[in-house]
Amino acid sequence: MSSLFPALESPSGLIALRFGDRSLTYAEFAAATGALAARLPRGGRVAVWATPALETAVAVVAALRAGAAAVPLNPKSGEKELGHILSDSAPSVVLAAPGDELPYPVRDLERIDVDVDVSGTGGGPSPAPSPGDEDPALIVYTSGTTGPPKGAVLPRRAIATTLDALADAWQWTGDDVLVHGLPLFHVHGLVLGILGPLRRGGSVRHLGRFSTEGVARELNEGATMMFGVPTMYHRIAQALATEPELAKALGRARLLVSGSAALPVHDHERIAAATGRRVIERYGMTETLMNTSVRADGEPRAGTVGVPLPGVELRLVEEDGSPITSYDSETVGEIQVRGPNLFTGYLNRPDATEAAFTADGWFRTGDMAVRDADGYVRIVGRKATDLIKSGGYKIGAGEIENALLEHAGVREAAVTGEPDEDLGERIVAWVVPADPQSPPSADELADHVASRLAPHKRPRVVHYLSVLPRNDMGKIMKRALHRA
User: Fold this and answer.
1) Segment Disordered: which positions (predicted)?
2) What is the pLDDT of residues 445-479, one digit of tens each?
3) Does 127 reside within a domain?
């Protein structure tokens, strides 16, 4: 197949990546990745200690240039999880920044320190044979909510097609400069946030650690795009009232993109009112990379994840698997997708791979959604945790959460279901009040939701918390709520 990174074939002196005060031009990046690739085994797997640093980007691209599959390791993972990932993926070496202290069992692997200070403009090795479209590029482990994490094998074809589809949807070119502060051990921060700019021949400025000050600085200094998760945009929305320079900086951005979880409508509206820019959302998974997005030239409807990307087939199905043929913005179904953006399977788990696909090749996402007549998709939650069957209705937790967040007395909200003898399931709200000393009452919140949505969607039980449990991506861990 053609190169994943054409800009590395004849590298220039343009800045490719910047992390804080450290940066590499395309010429320097080509030299560093080429020198490291020459030290790696052709094919096979290499682990990458995926800190938010230049070394991680060099390590992953070097592995891809050597035809190997990179296995990003989350530095915050515990020993048990790391042990499972290493046992399952069996990498031959681990790549890490010099000076990084690796925990057991990672330190039992042969280690290669990543050197980013390589002079020259060399393009690195020419792997023989050249990697094919279906050859593994990344093995990314999914969060194991119901068991040990599974390794999703992402082929080179999936990365190329997803990034090119996003380029089409977002009018993403080599002139764009991306700013973000996302972790680099998952597809959002690594594939979209690092490999995306490199495939376009553009530039990325990584904040190391997200801050509203960092976002404002980079957008004021020429960044054109920002990627973030809802937690980041929530902090931005809260800061806008006291940071006028932040509002001006966001107003200069060409594109503000949110992903990894639903962005509450309330935050959408606050950001749009203060900046004149609407955040657009996209929808993807580890196994599928990106499936849908609001287009740069499309209508940025708050609460939707846009339309299917070029090359992606998407359908909604009933519980019995039959496709929903008429879209009315109300009928809830499970999203199934098919296309070149999909993974090839779960490593060493043929059973799980088979269960994830229908007989005719559709991937069962487990995400529930409604679809407008013009194709816009609105996610209402996960099938396992966010679909509530109450009084004969199928209700998505997401729309109730959005309604709760519109109440002035609610800072954060999550919604789950619990067994009910009469209703089947009753709706339960978990609320972090804006004023812990004077939280809104359960009746007040129920009436608020009923007036905005429908009476059958009101919460029957309300729990008050000081904080909602979230993972590294800012997603609420709903299974932990019932233990709170």
Assistant:
1) 117-136
2) 999 988 888 788 899 999 999 999 887 667 788 87
3) yes
Cα Dmax for the chain: 72
Between CA 4 and CA 195 the distance in angstroms is 9
User: What's the token pair of residue 445?
Assistant: 């919140």
Neighbouring C-alpha atoms within 13 Å toward the C-beta of 52: 17
**Domain presence at residue 22:** yes
Domain boundary residue among 178, 193, 208? 193
Helix, coil or strand: residue 470: strand
The DSSP annotation for 45-60 comes to EEEEE--SSHHHHHHH
Phi, psi (degrees; rounded to nearest 5) at 19 = -120, 105
* Sign of the dihedral through C-alpha 375, 379, 383, 388: negative
Q: Specify if 80 maps to a domain.
A: yes
Global confidence as pTM: 0.85
How far apart, in whole angstroms, are the C-alpha atoms of residue 227 and residue 186? 14
The one-character DSSP state at 357 is B
Write the single-letter amino acid at 449.
V
Name the helix (H) or strand (E) containing 317: strand 313-317
The CATH number for 405's domain is 3.30.300.30
Tell me how far apart the alpha carbons of residues 151 and 349 are, in angstroms, rounded to a whole number. 9
What are the phi and psi torsion angles at 29 (to 5°)?
A: -65, -40
User: Is beta strand 424-433 parallel, antiparallel or unpaired with respect to 410-420?
Assistant: antiparallel
Residue position matching structure tokens 């691209």:
61
- Where among 151, 166, 193 does a domain terminate? 193
State how many domains the chain has.
2
Q: 362 lies in a domain?
A: no
Rounded to whole angstroms, the Cα distance separating 43 from 66 reads: 7
Q: What is the Cβ-side half-sphere exposure of residue 212, based on CA atoms within 13 angstroms?
A: 20
Distance CA(61)–CA(56), nearest Å, equals: 9
Integer Cα distance of 151 and 146 in angstroms: 14
> Rounded to the nearest 10 degrees, how much is the dihedral formed by the CA atoms of 124, 130, 136, 140?
10
DSSP 80-96: HHHHHHHHHH--SEEEE
Single out the residue of 300, 236, 132, 232 nearest to residue 475, CA to CA: 232
Residues 116 and 96: beta-carbon distance below 8 Å:
no
User: Is the distance from CB of 43 to CB of 67 less than 8 angstroms?
Assistant: yes
Give me the CATH number covering residue 52.
Answer: 3.40.50.12780
Per-residue pLDDT of 395-451, as tens digits, reads: 778 778 888 988 989 998 989 888 887 777 889 999 999 999 999 999 999 999 888
Domain that holds residue 79: 6-193
